[in-house]
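Notes, Module 5: Reading structure tokens.

Key idea: the token line is not a picture. It is a compressed description, and you learn to read it the same way you learned to read a sequence, by spotting repeated patterns. We will look at two proteins. The first is printed below with its tokens.
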Amino acid sequence: MTEVAGARGDAPAELSLAAEFDRPARADWERLVNRVLDKSGGTVDDLVSTTYDGIAIQPLYAADDPAPPAGFPGLPPFVRGARPEGHVGTGWDVRVLHTGPDPAATNAAVLADLEGGATSVWLRTGEGALPVPALADALGGVHVDLAPVVLEPGEDYEAAAEAFLGLLAERDVPAGEASGNLGADPVGLLARTGRAHGTDVAAALAARVAERYPRLRTLVVDALPFHEAGGSDSQELGAAIATGVAYLRALTEAGLSVETAARQLEFRLAASADQFLTIAKLRAARRLWARVLEVSGAPGVPLCQHAVSSPAMYTRRDPWVNLLRGTLACFAAGVGGADAVTVLPFDVALGLPDAFSRRIARNTQAILLEESRLSGVIDPAGGSWYVENLTDRLAHAAWAEFTGIERAGGIEAQLRSGELAGRLAATWQARSRRIATREDPITGVSEFPDLDEKPVERPPAPSPVDGGGLPRVRYAQAYEQLRDRSDAHLARHGARPTVFLATLGPLAAHTGRATFAANLLQAGGIEPVNPGATDDVVAAFAASGATVACLCGSDAAYAEQAADVAARLREAGATRVLLAGKPGEYPGVDAVVHIGCDALAVLTATLDELGVRP
């Protein structure tokens, strides 16, 4: 509202920009929506969706939807950002990941990334990745006093730290200029490998680093193991906060103050293509950690946050769609206030990324920063009734997860007992059901697949050093396994497995369901044979050479012809008959495919029937 003076010098009046319009009410909106949905038999309640944390996402949020005050940017609880100015003027830290074992190739790629706009370097070292002794070679020509270096050394974090600190001394980098993170993460190692790694060595290292290098962090609270095991956002956050608390305990026992200990930690969280949940997760993480530090006696230290585009969401099939997923994740990370952002290259699920994919990943951030000016606004999501409400709901769900972990003895006890793994597995099962039924569609894989796509090939990436810990999953993996079966069949027989679309009635009557069936079949690597409108569909089936058929037509056509055509198709050699339509019982039909059906089960059974071996 703005006060304006009247034309004759009257007292200031309140200006209402919508004064000539009726004030809308939620009930008015619901009435209009229900009028539209009533045509298809639905109501406004059908527009409500539920997250894996049980949070109901409403179709409309307004000023009367409750959410606590978010505070101010740069002040506790830091929901609106860790700094008062946000990332205005500087942008967030554009961090690039390098996992290759060849020091010369890594060095060339690192220099290219820094020249192309990256502002920090993330190096995976140790078994299967860059050898620790080659660290100096990989960072040749890199001004480590200007470009922060973040290590991911696995079990060799002590040796990697010594190598990096030696490099700083060799290059005469002033202790006050060294920045980055040495990457110690004993809890993350336990989560990944199932083997215990005491925190005492990491705590002693942090005490030594904190004394001399004020800008260099020692520990990473890596939440990716919980995310990649299929966990929900609150499970990821709860485990991350519990890990952070475990590190606080270890560091303070090593002699550090709570404030100094907190400044030794960096939190690594997944950013997914669900932009609003990602925004809420990053904001909720800051609020949760602020509460921990408030009760620990260091309320003024904000959480240092590194967001990484979700490895679980990347696909091997139609990997070009990963460009869109990475862009959405980066957008959400930037809006959510992440201090550093890593957009994984679109081909990361296929092997070692090439120069082109790394360049595109960098440029994704450059476009959002330089052209879209995404960092030009402090907390752009602040004040959104939806985001503020979602942030609050997610924070409460994550706090419940965190306190549950603490009551059970802490994060390490939960990992050793397998209780946390069980909760993550239950979420993964729920997610798998929604993926199988395509309630959570995966574009290019479970929806709109392209069987003629040219394969994208990359050199194999080093195998992650896991085993015995939490599993790594990718959302598309079950469909991709079916496509692999199809590819192997194609290589052996020179053709893909096929299903004949037995179209009933005129073109307009069967096109929609034939298109639906074709899309579903292709998700399993099955080539649909569509004769279009034909006078004798059974003869066309016999001529096609297929052994499985799918009836496609209108409900009226099914009522008149489905049973007869199914029987005739079997007489002509069909070993399995499907039907694309509403769920129901149809004589002679083995399975009905429809929106919400278990597509994975249908496709697996069909490939089995066609003799397509795993």
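Here is the second protein, with the sequence above and the tokens below, as before.
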Amino acid sequence: MVTLADTPTTKRIRQGPQAVLDREALTERLVERIREDKGKWETARSDVLAIVREERDAAMSRIEALLAEDGGGLLCAQRIAKLHDDLIAAVSQVIVSYAYPADNPSSAERIAIVAVGGYGRGTLAPGSDIDLLFLFPYKQTGWVESVIEAVLYLLWDLGLTVGHATRSVEDCIRMARSDMTVRTAVLESRFLWGDEELAEELVQKFDSSVVRGSAAEFISAKLAERDERHRRQGRSRYLVEPNVKEGKGGLRDLNTLFWIAKYFFRVRTGEELVSLGVLTRADYRLFRKCEDFLWAVRCHLHFLTGRHEERLSFDLQREIAVRLGYTSHPGLRDVERFMKHYFLVAKDVGDLTRIFCSALEEDQVKQAPRLNRFLRTMRHGKSRAIRGTKDFVIDHNRINVADPEVFSRDPVNLIRVFYLADKHDLAFHPDAMTLIRRSLKLINAALREDEEANRLFLELLSSKNDPETILRRMNEAGVLGRFVTEFGRIVAMMQFNMYHHYTVDEHLIRTIGILADIEAGRLEADHPLATSLIPTIQNRRLLYVAVFLHDIAKGRPEDHSILGAKIARKLCPRFGLSPSETETVAWLIEVHLFMSSTAQSRDLGDPKTISDFAEIVQSPERLKLLAILTEADIAAVGPGVWNGWKAQLLRVLYDETEPRLAGGHSRMSREQRVAAAQSALRAALPDWPDDAMDAYVVRHYAPYWLRVDLADKIAHAGLIKDADDNDRRFASDVVTDGDSGVTRLTVFAPDHPRLLSAIFGSCSVAGANIVDAQIFTTSDGFALDTIAVTRQFADDEDEKRRADRILAMIDRSLGGQEKLPDKVEQRIRKKGGPKPFRIETEVLLHNGWSDNHTVLEVSGLDRPGLLYDLTREISDLNLNITSAHVATFGERVVDVFYVTDLVGHKISNGQRQNRIKRRLVSVFNGDARRGQAAA
């Protein structure tokens, strides 16, 4: 056995779990209690249960205290497993001795209790199930059945969740041959109590009858199982609310590696893998550190929640960070530092997987290449040279090193290997990835400034093949963060909010992937504007560099857009960009949020909005670049964030701005585009008489024609016509969208100061989370409002019924039959409780954003009923809302209202402005709502 050098983690682990329960003392105490009842189990059972519960509760409290004291996650899991070993053994012993004694047992009256699954590995989390196998020789006798039943009922009465199976040795072998779950459970089996010879017989027969000759089948099944688990969990190991047990880079991935190792190499401990040369000492220490950290997180999760909780959700992350001793640093909060550590560990788990697979493959090649999961690519041909280089070869359709010295001989090869893999569309041989990882120290200042290395990097960054995959491989190997040290600072960095689904580095890489797909025309349906613009830009490579660097300065005290521009001015010349290209990249990074915020938060029908935006952008080329970057950035935030609504807003902003920047000659004027939209609707509704269409067209103002897509215009026309024909003053419609996870509610009703609050209040009462709103008024005094809410039901019919209930409540509220304030208050109380996020409330008044309106911009922490309270308070302040723009970024809401006083003037009085600010700030705190409720 190889002895590993001690690190704090390995030393602590090697000390073994500290005993928290004396099994013999517990058994004696139970026996003494039974004897007090003259050995009668029936009368003593309740007292036995009480003693065992008392001992377990006290031991679990000691284990939690020890976890806080020494931080040993693996030790904690081992202590909990050892505690239950002792409890089960003590309980089983007294049951056999006093409840069902067998004075003269037959050969069939033998039983062994065996731990399987995670418990079989000798580890348990506080809320884990306890998986037991009750093993008997060849048939189940009445005595065996009675003992098993007595043990199980006592464990259940303790409140434990016990997964159990009752089988003979032959049953186990027969089922293990056909059922991979049973096979894995038996592989992890560990004797607890009873007839140890039975348990040993199972192990020997399992080895000889099941394991022998079936390694390929087992490994293929386990890896397929792992891939399916990753698919269910979201594939990426960089999801910001990870599953500690089942997620990619979590404990189950480490379990899978060890299952395969035990099965294939027939080892009992991880250290034996070092003896066999499968892992180096450093690799094994890393394995143990990852395991220890993940177990610490999981045990804290269970203790904190008091249940079997595996998802590290936002509301738990901060408390876990505090429990683990993380503190805040400039630019990074305690919880963000903890989560960065978590994702670095998840990345290490991925590295270990690749190293292990490489060793396994090499061993199989020496024997008989039958593992189709690992070796399927080996059937496609033999090694061959790559034209233009002697340092790399194509080894069974994967790039591999020609010799172990390729990187030390020429460090530029650490970049070239990725360039060649992209150029020739090659996967990476595990041996190459292992050598890359072990050569990272060669990436120094000299290599970072090397002209050839930077040329190769820029080519692969802006490749027309698959730059996303190559950059992700570079990142996982550790090369990207070392070659671009500024990128290294944001590797595994999370942003503690509900808006961003991925870590910062994963987001940047995904944005490159979206951009590449747009350029290749693969996303034209979702990104028609960007797809049409990208072939017309003059310099595509600066766009890729800007996308790669746009969030490079996250996690620092300074504004990340401004600091990111400074970093770009340093990096771009190194990458080979000219001074003018560098300045364009820096500008794009500095304003990369500007187009999105303008489109979602400003009135695009107000000429001042367009002139302000055009003044910042200044040129048609920059407008194109910014539009493409904005679309890719939003789409890479997470599933469902990009939708047709946002696409239409950006299209309108682009179309309104482009003629101003091009001198009005390059595209249709605003009037021409309005006329074209009206003509398109006429063509789509040929059955409408000309006079009816003429009357309908003039009911809508120009912003409506520019901001609403044709499909919605057709639906709106039908809705309004039906209302007119039936003389109804309230009409509504519902559109469900499973792809975006959003349901849209459209309301057509007489315009009224309380209309918005009625809509928002009804949504709040129904528990509908509002993510966006589109507000229009017509020339004849009606409002046409569309509200997007988060979808609740998977089935369209269920979702439509929910939407119909909301719309009916809006109708009743407008008619005075529904008392919304009371119901909103009840809903808020029901959803009350502390929030894991802290966002400073900000209320701004802008008189320079519009020529005719005061613009109220309010931002802060979202909560149930907020929009209802805001619109109600604005009405109470005698302000008229002419345009509303609702944007939700996870837990943060940014709402913009274009308002005037009751006679149509801006709010210019300073005292009144301050009063408005105070009142709207109080809305976020709930003060205004409480005052209204009390009144």
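Summary for the second protein:
- The first strand starts at residue 112 and ends at 115.
- Residues 370 and 376 are 9 Å apart (CA to CA).
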